[in-house]
């Protein structure tokens, strides 16, 4: 029996509830293995025997508002090669992501994507065995809930 997967578009509204992100317009990138999230003011620090990341998320593509201040544990580090061939070592976090009615845990690298068109990439590992991608359509499942205003603090 073949399992039928829901179809998503090449970009979708994704939420990251534990980080306080109600909606972020994510590019579904089947060429990228790992998901990536735009963050600013990233600092890594130790708390006990674990490393944590403190950062700001600006989920609205063309605005600094809302500014969501976050702190979460770092899972590890991953060397990522960008589409331009430039390699960086990025911190990786693991958190719940939601797309429409679907929720799952996902590994996400933290990076400044200010110059990129999308504040988040949803990579292959996040969508494999969950969704099929229709490269000709957008926003098939997710919903724009980007109504947050001002500064929000989220801690996990």
**Rg value:** 15 Å
* Termini separation: 39 Å
The CATH homologous superfamily is named: Acid Proteases
Principal-axes shape call: globular
Strand adjacency order, main sheet: 2-3-11-4-10-9-8
Task: Indicate the proportion of strand residues.
Answer: over 45%
- Counting DSSP E segments of at least 2 residues, the number of strands comes to 13
Helix content: under 10%
Could you write a compact summary of the structure shown?
It is built from 1 helix and 13 strands. Helix content is 3%, strand content 55%.
Explain what you see.
The structure is a single chain. This protein is an all-beta fold and 156 residues long. It has one helix and 13 strands. The protein has one helix at residues 124-127; strands at residues 7-9, 11-16, 21-29, 35-38, 40-47, 50-57, 67-73, 76-81, 87-99, 102-111, 120-123, 132-134, 151-155. The protein has a seven-stranded mixed beta sheet with strand order 2-3-11-4-10-9-8. A four-stranded mixed beta sheet has the order 5-6-7-13, with no helix packed on it. Strands 1-12 form a two-stranded parallel sheet. Residues 147-156 have low confidence and may be disordered.
């Amino acid at each position: 029996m073949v399992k039928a997967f829901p179809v998503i578009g090449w970009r979708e509204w994704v939420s990251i509830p534990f980080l306080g992100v109600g909606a972020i317009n994510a590019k579904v990138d089947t060429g990228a293995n790992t998901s990536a999230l735009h963050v600013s003011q990233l600092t890594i620090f130790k708390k006990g025997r674990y490393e944590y990341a403190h950062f700001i998320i600006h989920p609205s593509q063309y605005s600094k508002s809302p500014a969501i201040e976050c702190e979460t544990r770092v899972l590890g580090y991953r060397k990522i090669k960008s589409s331009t061939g430039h390699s960086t070592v990025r911190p990786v976090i693991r958190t719940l992501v939601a797309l429409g009615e679907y929720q799952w845990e996902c590994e996400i690298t933290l990076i400044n994507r200010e110059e990129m068109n999308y504040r988040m990439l949803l990579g292959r590992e996040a969508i494999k065995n969950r969704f099929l991608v229709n490269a000709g359509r957008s926003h098939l499942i997710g919903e724009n809930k980007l109504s947050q205003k001002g500064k929000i603090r989220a801690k996990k």
